[in-house]
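Data card: per-record layout.
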Amino acid sequence: MKHFNILATILLLLIGGQKICAQTEHGFKEIDINNDFTDNPFTFFANAPILAAADSTGNGYNAMTIGWGDTGTLWGKPTMTVYVAQKRYTHEFMERARYFTVMTFDDMKVADYMGHHSGRDGDKAKALGLHVAYTKHGAPYFTEATAVYECEIMYDQQLSPSAFRNDVPRKLYGNFPAGIHSMYIGEVVGAWKK
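The structure for this 194-residue chain is written out next.
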């Protein structure tokens, strides 16, 4: 039976010329980020995805709503860039993480709750009835997500006021209590959708 399944898969690949995505845990299917990412990069982060990172020493994780980010290509790799303000609890985890995830949800109550509550004050996932799982690299994600993008941090840097070239960032940070953001550029190393 095993040989039949392998033969059937090869035959489908040859006939259809399509990549067959392997079924993964929790109902997700692996996708090819270069060919199957169909979201508009200008509105992807406006839809309030969730960012999650774990402490690489195994001392927990945190997740938060993000509204700023970029998708694209840098250094020949597919990338997602996220921005986390210094005073956010997730910032501590991003500083110690090697990998992070960006997740989408159909239910906007997840983004609303994650954006209005701090992980310092309680377990946000538990409050929402979400179940955490981890990728093979140890990056946390919620099994209820509709898509998960795992990224390996390639570069990070705190934004610098001396580099602001116009009044948009100057005005924003002039009255922004969470502090100036740090930028994290991650190579997309895994992508799954339901």
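Known properties of this structure: The first helix runs from residue 2 to 16. Helices lie at 2-16, 33-36, 89-96, 108-116, 124-128, 167-174.

See the next section for split statistics.
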